[in-house]
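Quick start: load a record and inspect it. Here is tRNA nucleotidyltransferase (CCA-adding enzyme):
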Amino acid sequence: MKLNQQFIIPTYVQFVLDFLHNHNYEAFLVGGCVRDLLLDRSVHDFDITTNCLPDELLTIAKQDNITVVPTGLQHGTVTFIIDKEPVEVTTYRIEEDYLNHRKPSHVEFTPSLKEDLKRRDFTINALCIDNHKILDYFDGLQDLNNSIIRCIGDASERFNEDALRILRALRFKCVLNFTIEPQTYKAIQTNAHLLSSISKERIRDEFIKLLESDEDDLLLLLRDSYTLLEIIPEYELAFDVPQESRYHIYDVFDHMNAALNASKGAPLTLRLAILLHDLEKKNFKTMDTNNHAHFKGHAHASAKLSRVILNRLRFPKAIIKDVYTLIEYHDYYLQPKKKTIRKFLYKLQGNFTLAYQILEVQKFDNMGKNPDIIEEKNQVIDEVIALIQEMENNQEVYTIYGLNVDGNDMIQLGYQREEISIILQYLLKYIIHHQDKNTHEHLLKIAGGKFHEISNRQ
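Running the structure step on this input writes:
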């Protein structure tokens, strides 16, 4: 790989480097920002490491009227604010006695840059830059050139210090399209169980980045690295479940892997829905007299299970709700007929965006099935989408708020309390299939004609 040697350091970052140099301190860009500059990738956070102690950093910054925030003094970190942009500056340090395979219980400052870099995770993240000169103590440039993820020193020690590095290694492999060096990969497999010590929020954040990558066969990577069941133990339900049907050529796990491949680049909620959509198939499998498998009820059960999994991983409630609905309807197949589509949109309360997402999930799902039926099934979905787009363009009504009458009109007709809700729902169901009749005069006429029936029923 040809590395970018013509990288540009933003002026606000160079200002901090020059400021430290002018006070006779060492200062280097370090970590992910260096890696991404050399790979010509966009950089969002710039980190600087220095031999200046944190208290001294605060003192000299104050003398020069520079805004500095003590964001992590116990770990030697302060944040310079230059032109409203943050730059983290951390004193060289040594970390010891890691707690719960995540955080050091003891941090000691050191004058040695190399000692500081030895505590970092991977060789490609231990590169430093000063005045466009690259410092490389651990052959990180060679690994960067060869697209290799390799731990600094003993891989098992690095993962025991911080088990989250296991997912970071997999994430860098997927995002950068790199290869994990054999000893590092073996250590991932050996130490995958340590992920149980990591907070669910940290697991979730790394897992989202994995899902947002373009990695082929992500599920295979997670399974073979022994990390999948550490993140989602329920995935064991998908292993070794044949699908004896003309629609399927894969077992459940391989089907879900193929469908997830098809969903690359899709929004997170759709990726999560495909990731979890068939987990309950094993528990709903039946065989008919022709020895064909059926899985009636699995969509609802898988939707409920997705809620358990995503709650445990601390996903936001809005995402959990959307994923639940996408899975609930992933097996709800429509024909390109307006009558059935309108019933579908009524169930979704006229949420056209959600309708499109459900159909997109269905298309991804189909991509993991028998190739002989994919084109046929997805063509039907495309025809359904075209009709829904026509309905949306025509501003069709699927909630009572779109009716050309309201509760006050019903009161004028003599309706009271719960009668109002009943008649408005009646009018809505009528309008769903008679969209051209949504006029004030016509709806008042219908409502007036139903008054005695609804009042007597009440």
